[in-house]
Amino acid sequence: MSLHDITSRIAKAEADAGRTPGSVQLIAVSKVQPDTRVAAVLDEGHRYFGENRVQEAEGKWPAFQQQYDGVGLHLIGPLQSNKARSAMELFDVIHTLDRPKLAQTFARLAQELGRCPDMFVQVNTGEEAQKAGVLPADADAFIKECQSLDLPVRGLMCIPPVDEEAALHFALLAKIAARNGVGDLSMGMSSDFEKAIALGATHVRVGSAIFGERSAG
Ligand SMILES: *Cc1c(COP(=O)(O)O)cnc(C)c1O
């Protein structure tokens, strides 16, 4: 696969689902990938990237951002409160707002920094103990809490359980977003992004299908 193959498949999935062309943003997930592969995708003109660790992203993106204009960085991994400030300084969008303490920390830092990245609330649609995200039953109240803190909640994000039909989780996420009036849906990865687009994804997070398999780590 290559960037071009993935963007063609996204365009086809948009058309098949009757979605507006260009309504789905591809986030190229560059975690753990060697810099040469990331640079190749930047050279092809792609600008939206996802990382799951603040520290790793701090080590690699400032240099790329000097070299390439218009990079949009998305945090897609779980965030500890003590890294919230660094995350807000580096990332344009945070997909993993998942608990009241983090929401309160972001709200305080937004006042201090005078800016705030766009945010997605992560929902643990599979109710998995090891996975981050607010439970579906708590999602409505948590979204309202974030909004009352003036956080720019643009949408919802989920990572379906590996052993379950992803479409059920995508549909559940879309339903929670609709009843809360939040527009964007961050869902779908290498193995299931077309399904996610059919169910309304606005942001797909695709790593290995663009860059190749990640080595250990
Ligand atoms: C790694 C990762 C992805 C990309 O996974 P692929 O299967 O390589 O496409 C998407 N979302 C999250 C949250 C990830 O951590």
UniProtKB/TrEMBL annotation:
Modified sites of kind N6-(pyridoxal phosphate)lysine: 31
Annotated CDD domains: PLPDE_III_YBL036c_like
Q: What is this protein called?
A: Pyridoxal phosphate homeostasis protein
Show the taxonomic lineage.
Bacteria, Pseudomonadati, Pseudomonadota, Alphaproteobacteria, Rhodobacterales
Would you say which domain of life the source belongs to?
Bacteria
Task of the protein: Pyridoxal 5'-phosphate (PLP)-binding protein, which is involved in PLP homeostasis.
Q: Does the keyword Phosphoprotein apply?
A: no
Per the entry, which co-factors are needed?
Answer: pyridoxal 5'-phosphate
HAMAP family linked: PLP_homeostasis (MF_02087)
Q: What's one GO MF term for it?
A: pyridoxal phosphate binding
